[in-house]
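[Q] Does anyone have a clean structure-token version of this?
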Amino acid sequence: MMKHSFIALTFILLLTPSASSCSENRAGDRLSLGQNPEAGQKVLTAEDFLRDYGDNRIDRGSGREEVSFLIEINPQLPVYRFRLIPDPIALANCDDPRLRDRCVEDRPRVGRIEISTIGDPTILQTIEVASYAWASMFTQHFQAKDVNFDGYLDIATLDGYGAKWSAYDYWLFDELSGRFITNSFTRMLRKLDFNEMTLYPETKEIHTTHLPSVCFGRKIHKVINGRLALMYSEEPRLEGEGEDFCKLRIEKRINGVMRLIN
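[A] Here you go.
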């Protein structure tokens, strides 16, 4: 299947009598949540999703059952609960060999995400999720990372994959409403079919690799004013044999225009 290295996304604050008591309450909430014996869950942070491999891999279940995640979207906000509920019809269809191909080709609804905050049963938002990937991959590849570099984690679900690539659907955290939204930026992100993605908050860059043949390509996109701008591209071409088998067509953005530099 595919190689995974997905790294790997202001809310209206409730007024309290003083800033210090507000800070103490938030800290107390996070502490109690992380130790809540009823929930039995760790509050996941951006770091957990960055280290999501090997022994540190986040438990997402088998893909056939409902799972729930507690996630710190931002240290100044209440902890959010994400309840991922797979669609039983999609699971059944994808398990039937006679229906598998159509199950994927039709991009069916594979489940829903119910979003709330810890300690409040009110559902703030429900997101219906469709995907070209198997229905069981809905919960297994759920991600939370700050893809637009605004200091708040965003969420993503797998929308398609192949032997050499994957693509995700994204929902950005909106600081004004406290909800997760899609817009032109998330639609541009969906077009990033990649083998590997790395985020660089310091430069607001998204680096991706892809494998169109036997040679890796590489692209660098930069987040500028809420848009995704291609800054650098390496596209491999197969020529000759030996060490020079892979030739790269390299382009770089210069004065606002992508120019060939080799």
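[Q] Thanks! Anything notable?
[A] DSSP finds six helices and 15 strands in the chain.
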